[in-house]
Each structure stands twice: as C-alpha cells, then as structure tokens.
Specification:
- The structure is a single chain.
- Helix content is 73%, strand content 0%.
- It has 196 residues and is mostly helical.
- The chain has one domain: YP_001051499.1 fold like (Up-down Bundle), CATH 1.20.1590.10.
- Helix 2 packs antiparallel against helix 3.
C-alpha cells in the first residue's frame, strides 16, 4: 500500500479553506455510517448530522467563522456513546463523528493541520470494515494481500485523490465547492457501501 502512504504525505500540504473542504468531504461521505449507527444502535441524540454538514458547507463558502458550541457538545457526547459500544457498527459511526469533530475544530482554528489525520482515519474505516467482514480468519500476510487488492481500498484512495485534485484546482466559489460536495456525496454511499 505504498501508493496510499505517498498520498497521505501529499495531504499535509493542504491549508486553509482547501483543508477544511477536504476534511468536510470525508465527513460528508461518512454520514451514512453515522446515520445507520444512530439508527441500529438506537443512540439518542438531538444532533442532525446532515444539517450540521450543510451548515459547515455554507460557512465555508461564505468564509464565516462557524462556532456551534452546542453542536460541539453534542458531537462529544455522541462520540462517547459510540466509544463505549462493543458492536462493530459503532466503529464506522464513531469515525464519522471524529471527522465531524475535526471539521468543527478547523472552523474554530483554521491553522490546525488535520487533513492527513482525517485521510488516514477515513482509510482506516475502510480497512477495518474489510478486516471485520472478510479477514477475520486470515494471517497478517494474507490480510495485507487482501487489503492491497481490495476494490473498496482502491476506491477510497481514488476518492481522496479526486477530492484533493479538485480542491487543488478549485476557487472558493459556490460552483466549485458544489462540484466538490457532489463528489463527496458519492451517490449517497459511504466508503464501505452504506447508503442512506
């Protein structure tokens, strides 16, 4: 998976609104995992993930400082609820919450460097899913071979590269960010194939 390692090093160069848009794109794509986790595990939360993501995109376009102290509390609470659950379904949902928290942190402190960490987290969501569904009986070598050739892993790296490339050539306009967001929505499917 040397290509993915090289990809992650490129993410460190993302700054400012482009970094925010990259992390937000990963959070957008992970939303189905969050919604399913809330549903299946019957997690009680007043937070609407889709509404929060909408607000993040709007604030990015307008370059407004968006600080929802209440939503940060909700996200922290939601994260803790998923963290203590033992079911596998809590893990992708927990990762989605972490991506939303990173987005929120970048809104508050744009100088942070979180793109690489977010990219690795999104990638890890996919590899953990494959390990859980297909690799539980494999030894380490066979698991690495499975991950290296798996279509979901390839799709995740391709997705992140496409977002990175789009953002590198984008301007901070409604039209350009809408194109990035449509790509991030991925037809309503998360990186592990969950739909909402």
């Amino acid at each position: 998976m040397a290509t993915s390692i090289k990809h992650f090093s490129h993410l460190e160069k993302l700054r400012g609104w482009r970094q925010q848009a990259f992390v937000l794109s990963l959070a957008e794509r992970a939303l189905p995992n969050l919604m399913l986790g809330i549903d299946v595990l019957e997690i009680d939360t007043p937070l609407s993930g889709p509404r929060l993501v909408d607000a993040f995109w709007r604030s990015l376009v307008r370059q407004e400082l968006l600080i929802f102290s209440q939503s940060l509390d909700y996200l922290s609470n939601l994260f803790e609820q998923f963290k203590v659950r033992g079911e596998y379904g809590a893990r992708p949902a927990e990762d989605a919450v972490r991506l939303l928290m990173m987005t929120q942190n970048l809104c508050r402190r744009p100088g942070l460097r979180l793109a690489k960490e977010a990219g690795q987290l999104s990638f890890q969501t996919v590899t953990t899913y494959i390990e859980f569904t297909e690799g539980s009986d494999l030894d380490e070598h066979d698991l690495v071979m499975l991950l290296d050739k798996h279509p979901l892993v390839k799709a995740e790296v391709r997705f992140q590269r496409d977002i990175h490339r789009r953002l590198s050539n984008a301007a901070l306009t409604d039209a350009d960010l809408n194109q990035v967001r449509q790509l991030a929505k991925n037809g309503g499917l998360s990186g592990i194939g969950i739909g909402h």
